[in-house]
Amino acid sequence: MGEVYRARDTRLDRTVAVKVLPSHLAQNAEARERFEREARAISALNHPYICHLYDVGEQDGHNYLVMEYMEGETLSSRLLRGRLPLEVALRYATEIADALDAAHRRGIVHRDLKPSNIFATQHGECKVLDFGLAKLEQTETGSNAATVAAAELLTIPGSAMGTAAYMSPEQVRGEELDSRTDIFSFGVLLYEIVTGALPFQGKTSGMLADAILNREPKPPTQLNPDVPLELHHILSKALEKDRDLRYQSAAEMGADLRRLKRDSEVDRLSAASSARLEAQAPQRWTLPTIAISVAAVALLVAGGVYYRSHQSAPLTDKDSVVLADFENKTGDSVFDGTLKQGLSLQLGQSPFFNIVSESKVDGTLKLMGRGSGERLTPEIAREICERTGGKVTIAGSVARFGSQYIVGLRAISCGSGEVLAQEQEEAASKEQVLKALDSGAVRMRGKLGESLSSVQKYATPVEATTSSLEALKAYSLAYKDIVVKDDNPGAQLQAQRAVRLDPSFAAAYGLLAVVYRNLGEMTLATDNIRKAYELRARVSERERLEIEAYYDQIATGDLEKARRSYELWAQTYPQDFIPPTNLYEIDMILGQYDKALPKAREALRLEPASGNNYENLAFSYFFLGRLDEAQATIAEAHAKKLDTPNLHLLVYLLAFMKDDTAGSAQEIAWSRGSPGIEDVFLDVEADTSTYSGQLAKSRDLSRAAVASALHAKQKETAANHEAAAALREAFLGNTAEARER
After folding, report:
1. Which residue in 260, 363, 517, 644 could disulfide with 609, CB within 3.0 to 4.6 Å?
2. pLDDT band for position 267 (cuts 50, 70, 90)
């Protein structure tokens, strides 16, 4: 409102802009109040991104404002030529956020933020204009003021619909307004400048109001595929219909925008650097090279869009990858840990990807002085990657935009921090998120260097393993319990929950079988591995090999067939430590301790952060009578802050053999009160007591072992302890006692 003229300030010799209230509005009290309100608001502010006010006055009945003169155009004019480049939009957005923060700190709410009130100067910066509807929060309160403001917006001739499209829900409802109404309007403006379209539209004012109050906008990537996931999150939060869920200040929103702007600039610099290096490389073309290039183009056209972003592959099959925890921006805890597990399943099925294990990650965290199981931010994941000699970290995120979800993946070089590949996928609903994750991960595999034939061969989607997010989360927790914490009872509970949620979850049955086997419950282990075996058509190649090998070992007891299965697994996935670990176990069962030793060493080489691998190597030495080497292996594990129940058990046995009564007692005391551990120690102590000739004590300990196992609801383990007691009696010639057991 008002007419603007270019003028010359003769006293200060500068060009200025003079805004004059038109004569036909001079007698309109409402128009004069709005004009004076703008003067008061601007005079209270002095900010580089707000148009400066130099003077205010009245002459010959005409009110006027003398303001800073700028050359350029409003954003509304600029948008007539289409959406802004992302780099420009982010720069303007951070400047607008700073301007709003300055106004809000002075208690001034703009209430009419829109492209026509943002001026883009020729110097590349923007200025916020027209504070004619601004109010002071502390002096103008109540729903009446808000209703008046809404009425003004809807009754300005020629601009009602355009202005109303930027109104907040509370503004549409005529409620009391605060600075958060500007946040919503800013979100609408930002959406428009990055997509070229308004988020809320309607042919009538009623339809527009309904859209603002009740409808969700289209995800920005549907209109502009270059919009990054972080900007999705910013827009989603700014456009929350409930202002309590919205950004609570312009400063908060500005911080997120500056962070995104910084990260975007880093990405551009990395890309530019790579491009310069490629441009500087000499291009020597020969006839054979041209022929190969033509053939490559033909293959590309025939095979669809499949390419690598660099001339040399970022990864090889000898490199390792660290997975960071996903950044969950949805507020839904079901995604916590779940999508990382899903990504691990998708990438891990390929022999090309060597994912740093959970146990190695946890061990490295401890060496870094961090807590076990600490959340892996991209920064922490990158440090772990460097410490473990890895090549790439992959970080993911999930955000919600209305009813839709956005899944993002980013692969980063551990050494340089360069972004090597990134993907972004949309999911129409929560149930489609795993499918979106699969799509993004498959494309990223190609970009990081995996061959097309390999991607196509190892292409089982995560949804084939399980379509249930809740089941996948339970599986993820079970996996961590057994691999990181060596907590079989905890893993049992989570794996049981996974199969309850998804009765066709083959991998969860397989994990449950391993847990039961570790707990000595062989009947339950057999039942679960049989179920996994029946469902193996639904799993990836890696999972199929694992299930078939466990089936041969646990269900059929055919150790030689199991050996062949593990050898095939090792041949297909040579960086996986589980095959040599289980081949070691088969040799130990057969009493072939000399053959078991190199397999234990190989497993430890592949996974040096595993306490279980240290205990296997130590037991190999122990059964070969190389007690000093067993002791040294335990000391090395302890130096790495690795600890398992079986390491404690071996320390007990070594102390017993050295007549170290205090050392033995210390380990026995450590085991007391631990379900699934205490009974094993009691049973072994019964063995050593028998060996020492303390038969009465041995019988007491045997009964205590049985009771402890029953208390832990491990009936089959209790029966095994009874059988062990009977064997001890029979060994001593006490046949009657043996029969009673």
Report:
1. 363
2. low
Looking at the DSSP bridge assignments, the partners of residue 21 are none
Instruction: Give the CATH number of domain 72-261.
Output: 1.10.510.10
Q: How far is CA 711 from CA 109, 496, 715, in A?
A: 66, 19, 9
Q: Please tell me whether the overall predicted TM-score, pTM, comes out greater than 0.85 for this model.
A: no
Q: What is the pLDDT of residue 64?
A: 81
Percent of the chain's residues with pLDDT above 90: 64
Residue 138 pLDDT more than 70? no
- Give the length of the chain: 741
Answer with the residue of higher pLDDT: 131 or 90.
Answer: 90
Of all residues in the chain, what percent are helix, strand and coil, respectively (each to 5)? 60, 10, 30
Contact 381, 395 (CB under 8 A): yes
pLDDT at 92: 96
512-559 confidence digits (pLDDT tens)? 999 999 988 999 999 999 999 999 988 999 999 999 999 999 999 999
Cα–Cα distance list, 646 to 123, 360, 378, 612, 632 (Å): 70, 19, 34, 8, 15
pLDDT digits (tens, 9 = 90+) for 649-667: 999 999 999 999 999 999 9
Q: Does domain 3-68 bear CATH number 3.40.190.10?
A: no
- CB burial of 667-689 (b: ≥16 within 10 Å; e: otherwise) equals bbebbeebebbbbbbbbbbbbbb
Cα distance between residue 351 and residue 338, in whole Å = 22
* Nearest in space to 583 (alpha carbons), one of 575, 592, 431: 592
Contact by Cβ (8 Å): 134, 111: yes
CB 83 within 8 A of CB 193: yes
**Tokens linked to 590:** 């057969």
* Residues 683 and 705 sit within 8 Å (Cβ to Cβ): yes
Amino acid code (one letter) for 740 = E
Q: CA dihedral defined by 445, 451, 457, 458, rounded to 10 degrees?
A: -30
- Look-up of token digits 């595993």: 610
Task: Enumerate the domain spans of the chain.
Answer: 3-68, 72-261, 312-459, 466-576
Whether 3-68 and 72-261 share one fold: the answer is no
Q: Are 569 and 576 in contact (CB under 8 A)?
A: yes
Report the candidate in 52, 139, 150 with the shortest Cα–Cα distance to residue 102: 52
Q: Does domain 466-576 have CATH number 3.30.70.100?
A: no
- Please tell me the CATH code under which domain 312-459 is placed: 3.40.50.10070
Beta strand 327-328 with 392-401 is parallel
- What is the CA 109 to chain-centroid distance, rounded? 36
Distance in angstroms (rounded) separating the CA atoms of residues 412 and 415? 9
Q: What is the distance between the alpha carbons of residues 424 and 93, in angstroms, rounded to a whole number?
A: 22
Cβ burial, residue 403 (10 Å; 0-12/13-18/19+): exposed
Confidence of residue 158 (pLDDT cuts 50, 70, 90): very low
pLDDT at residue 99 above 70?
yes
